[in-house]
TrEMBL record:
A cellular component annotation (GO) from this entry: Golgi membrane
E.C. code: 2.8.2.-
Name this protein carries in UniProt: Carbohydrate sulfotransferase
GO molecular function, one term: sulfotransferase activity
Family: Belongs to the sulfotransferase 2 family.
Enzyme class per UniProt: transferase
Amino acid sequence: YPRQHAPQTQLSEFNRTTIEAMVGSYTKVLFVRDPFQRLISAYMQSMGGHHRSFSTFVQGVLDRGQHKASLEAKPLVSLCQPCLIQYDYVIMFGFLRQEVGHLIHRVGLPKDIYLPEFRDTQVQWTYMWLSEQLFGELSLQQKKQLSHFYRGDLSAFHFPNSLLSD
């Protein structure tokens, strides 16, 4: 789409017709990850200098609510607007190698393009174990509140192994 703005211009500053034309002219790719695994990642990133339990961290996220949650803890549906934007591809963490290769082929990029080594498949096993350990630290009420907090993500995307789906 022809650039009519500086790189710092927010999409929300344009009228709806311009936004639809701009967004419609791109191949839109959304990368998604189980919300509980995203929460664990946010917890691990926040640990620099803080020695709080996972349960305390989760309670802080729940107390702040969706609108005041940090970017790392916010539900994906509030960040990527899947109901407003029709994504051409939704790629799930755990399948990056296969999906990105398919995407590159579909959009017509050269087959010999350099791709980084994706380790998400190997990391999945570690996250499954860690998820179970940390999930066990939460009270039943916190588990229910988290399922409610991320209900939009759980409805919009298929996370068959998510602990929050139960």
